[in-house]
Design goal:
The structure is a homodimer. Helix content of chain A is about 45%, strand content about 20%. Chain A is of the alpha+beta class. Chain A has three domains: about 80 residues, Winged helix-like DNA-binding domain superfamily/Winged helix DNA-binding domain (Arc Repressor Mutant, subunit A); about 140 residues, Beta-Lactamase, CATH 3.30.450.40; about 90 residues, 2-Layer Sandwich (Enolase-like, domain 1). In chain A, the strands form three sheets. A five-stranded antiparallel sheet of chain A has the order 7-3-10-9-8, with helices on one face. In chain A, strands 4-5-6 form a three-stranded antiparallel sheet. In chain A, strands 1-2 form a two-stranded antiparallel ribbon. Chains A and B meet through strand 4, strand 5, strand 6, helix 9 and helix 10 of A and strand 4, strand 5, strand 6, helix 9 and helix 10 of B. Strand 6 of chain A pairs antiparallel with strand 11 of chain B, so a sheet runs across the interface. The structure holds a DNA duplex.
Chain lengths: ~350, ~350
DNA sequence: CTTTAGCACTCTTTGCTTCTGAGTGCTAAT
DNA sequence: ATTAGCACTCAGAAGCAAAGAGTGCTAAAG
């Protein structure tokens, strides 16, 4: 059967109406719509065709039609019209984006909160390093009271530090020597290269402070692995309850349970594949628990080979156009923000 | 009317049964309980008395009794028996507590997740500084590529850093001088003492690197204010939905909405007053939205004048004994953990 | 004087039936 | 090809009776 223009028009109308009302759409309301120049009977015939083509379904015989997943797919791919952000919206988005100078982690968690707020749906945000991070530079600062500060700068220009108590007495000179040795031998290495042999070699050549080497490399390993690990933040889970399809708590819980870290942590794997915004409708989804929901996500680049992902989860019947527009805007600006940071030049983090 | 031993016994039985079943308790089941050596009729009489005394209530005439808020209060204060953690429980708590060396912030957020998991209820965790933090020490490290790392150690021995691009050329000597000046004039001061005059005086005496002073103090202010601000983490909101009293989504949402930062941020104010574990039953609660719920919270000390608070939110009918025991155990160990950190001596954070 | 058995009464819950209305599919006329 | 008309279906609301749980009170028993 052919998908005529009129059929498309009807499908679009059904999808959009259903998105708004969450109620099955009947032939009568459709025929009453402006621009629909035919009777309800004609529309019924068309709807029967669309149902046969697998684009619509009927909850039960005496109800109107709702879009099937395939129907949504078609709508999203071909029928959906771009949603234009209003001035008000861009303004409040901009306002929300005024993130203070903060650690990447915090920015990400805040972003997930903001996205959730803007879309009124549960949102997730995460980052992942594209290539394994390494240490770019070690610094050891004497801090009095028998302790020193270990400062590590990673390949992503992220700086982390830690106050460590000295297990032995040690002069500033000793620390300087150790730092020099570390910078010579342990930079640009992934954690798995920190072999016991390396460790011993370094400690020997580092003089009195050599005993600190394990502590230092331990922390380095910790920092690097944290850096590599993408942390996932999920916010606004409760927003899901506002959606009529999740008035049933069990359903909501099922969906939300799959958002608890586990499932999402293997998302970054797919991340590289995503170009721009991706919309997963119902059964196409990541996890089987999400088969009745949709996920919309957008990638953005942080620079330094890092990528980020923001997305929302909602009923299949969500306003894709609007959500997509907002996510893209967000992602774009985040990318820009990370690319050329605020003027009093700063980069990396604490 | 007098509160006889038997009345107490009955009240306790009712509370505990109701905690388990979430159903009103009738005279018949009570009389059938082991240790109840009287008929259902007698119990009915006693229950009528307890109701009159305001310790019990009846959802409707033909239902059993449930404890009133006052009844809970009495139970919590006098009747509740300590819940002893089983070996299994302490073990899994210990296991959960094996927090990796991490920032205070992250520990706190993780703690809230753990508490929620252990109690199966929404949990919150937060910290607050008892006295205004100050900078204890500045360090400036040349980092090549025309940038330097600013390292700040605060009064709480927390170390924060930030990579800053140099807006001008500047030698390592210049930075050293600047650090010396800053350490001489700007330590032990709260951010509000960073007046324009101070700023100017310092920049003048700091030689070539004087132009960096605003950047440095800006960041210091940021760090200190972040330190002073207590961040609240709430986890496991969805857990509330597992409780039968919140099957009604609107109710759940109402309660959870009051957990979104705002309400909780003025909790720290009361924090000082809390000794050990505090149980707020229904109407005694912090926010009016919580009038049908209970909050249990425990304070712990982090050292350096910092305090933390962990707590859970749940139905008035929650297992106070168990929750209290778990919270206390948690708090105790957290306190210990912060007091004398892991052996390879470390303290403070990144 | 306290306890208990017995009983009438109340009120929620549950299951059932009926009714209503929205929406369909089909047929016949335009 | 479109449309009007009509019989048919089915979910949801409304109404109702029966069941069951639990109470309060009274009167007898310890």
């Amino acid at each position: 059967m052919e998908l005529t223009e009129r059929k498309k028009k009807i499908l679009r109308a059904i999808v959009e109406n259903y998105i708004q009302t969450a109620e099955p759409v009947g032939s009568k309301v459709l025929s009453a719509m402006p621009g629909m120049d035919c009777s309800s009977a004609t529309i019924r015939n068309e709807m029967a065709d669309l149902t046969q083509m697998g684009l619509l379904e009927q909850p039960h015989t005496s109800a109107g039609r709702i879009p099937s997943p395939a129907g949504y797919r078609l709508y999203v791919d071909e029928l959906m019209q771009d949603y234009r952000l209003s001035v008000d919206e861009t303004q409040s988005l901009n306002q929300a984006m005024e993130l203070k100078l903060q650690e990447v982690d915090k920015v990400i968690s805040q972003v997930s909160k903001m996205v959730s707020k803007m879309t009124n749906l549960p949102a997730m945000a995460m980052t992942a390093a594209a290539n394994a991070p390494t240490v770019k530079r070690f610094d050891l600062i004497m801090a009095g009271e028998g302790s020193f500060i270990l400062v590590i700068m990673t390949s992503g220009d992220v700086v982390k530090n830690r106050l460590i108590k000295l297990p032995l007495t040690c002069t500033e000179q000793d620390l300087k020597l150790l730092a020099a040795v570390l910078n010579a031998s342990c930079t640009d290495l992934t954690p798995d290269s920190f072999t016991p042999e390396l460790l011993e070699r370094v400690s020997r050549s580092a003089g009195p402070a050599g005993a600190l080497v394990p502590l230092v490399l331990d922390y380095a390993t910790h920092v690097l692995s944290q850096q590599a690990k993408s942390e996932v933040y999920v916010s606004g889970q409760m927003k899901l309850l506002g959606q009529p399809e999740y008035r049933d708590i069990d359903k909501a819980q099922e969906v939300l349970s799959s958002l608890d870290g586990e499932t999402l942590s293997n998302l970054p794997a797919t991340m590289a594949d995503i170009a721009g915004t991706q919309i997963l409708v119902g059964p196409e989804n990541i996890a089987k628990e999400l088969k009745d929901t949709s996920v919309v996500m957008t990638r953005f680049d942080i620079g330094d080979g890092m990528q980020g992902l923001i997305g929302v989860v909602g009923p299949t019947r969500m306003d894709y156009a609007q959500v997509t527009a907002r996510l893209s805007y967000f992602a774009e600006n985040l990318g820009r923000m990370f690319a050329k940071p605020e003027l009093p030049p700063s980069q990396g983090e604490e």
